[in-house]
Amino acid sequence: MKAAVYRGAGKIRVEEVPEPQVSEQKALVKFRAGSICGTDLHFFRGDWRWMKRGRIIGHDACGVRADTGERVVMVPVTYCGKCYYCLRGLSTYCTRGKFLGLTSDGFFAESIAMRTRNLVPVPDSVSDEEAAVAEPVALALHVMDALKPNVGDWATIIGQGAIGLLMTQVARLKGCRVIAIDLEDYRLRLAEKYGADFCINAKREDAVKRVREITRRGSDVVVEAAGTVRTVEQTPFMVHKAGRVALVGESKGYLNLEDADEAMFFTMYISPVEYPLAVKLIAEKRVDVKGLVTHKFRLADFEKALQTADNPAEKPLKVVVTA
Ligand SMILES: [Zn+2]
Ligand SMILES: [Zn+2]
User: Fold this and answer.
1) Which helix (DSSP H) or strand (DSSP E) does residue 163 occupy?
2) pLDDT for 130
3) Cα 241 to middle of ligand 1, angstroms
4) In 38, 64, 209, 258, which residue has its Cα 20 to 30 A from 237's Cα atom?
5) Other Cβ atoms closer than 10 A to 173
């Protein structure tokens, strides 16, 4: 069968690989559609070189169970149920768990043998293309739950890529007033469509100053989803005293927080536990992922799909790959 295989920085190729072996507690899932995530691009660009060569990538996808014919979203994090974290209900951090598509083979393959407990059924009202974008929805739900905003609170979302735009949507569902920040007007137009109360183009305006003007004392909660040192450094000056800041973007490097006031900061990158709710909200049209899909390719053209996802001139948000 064919699969997208990591062969080193800049080299992810569609290759012929052996068919998966189905063992007990597993079901064969035939690939239908998946989406490319920023994480995949880090490997493609060579930012992260720890991935094993020969690994099949992809961690956000749906398929059809060969045994039951049911359409399912695949949850990419496995857990043991017995370790320190699992026993405390934090299976996301299982010390024996695998992250499919990163530390074990992932979803961009014609089929995969999956633990059945990692499969979430997809209702007919959700298309393959929509079911291919479950991961960032689950993350947005988890992050906004952790931030615990009250109705009417200010939520400032820095970065309106696919993840930021979903944060904007979920913050609105939570009853927040949303300030959306980005450098690109086409993304801010989508943020506005998804209910952002204020949109700031940080190329033209001083984002920190504008947030403080709008909110008077600072935002109640802030989500950093742009993934740059500069935007992380802005968060303490956008949030009000004792406010909460979620750092969702990857941003390596020395941080200068100067004379930042007191606030709570935390990181969050994945949420396997919120997949069922994510699928439900997509099915009920309460969260929109269709509007985030800007490009579609076949699995055989995976390299073209990656290049498109990595090319800002293409204005990509979510690039979906289909069987
Ligand atoms: Zn991802
Ligand atoms: Zn465990």
Assistant:
1) helix 162-173
2) 98
3) 31
4) 38
5) 14
Alpha-carbon distance of 68 to 108, in angstroms, equals 21
**Å from CA of 81 to ligand 1 middle:** 23
CATH number, residue 103: 3.90.180.10
Encode pLDDT of 264-310 as tens digits: 999 999 999 999 999 999 999 999 999 999 999 999 999 999 999 99
| Phi, psi (deg, nearest 5) at residue 163 | -70, -45
Which CATH number does the domain housing residue 234 bear?
Answer: 3.40.50.720
Is the pLDDT assigned to residue 253 strictly greater than 90?
Answer: no
Domain extent for 53: 2-133+289-322
pLDDT at 257 over 90: no
Residue 280 lies in a domain: no
**Using CA atoms, how far apart are residues 12 and 7, in angstroms rounded to an integer?**
6
114: tokens are 């999956």
Quote the ligand 1 centre to 200 CA distance (angstroms): 26
Residue with tokens 């992809």: 58
Please, which residues have CB within 8 angstroms of residue 313's CB and are 6 or more apart in sequence?
A: none
H or E segment to which residue 306 belongs? helix 302-309
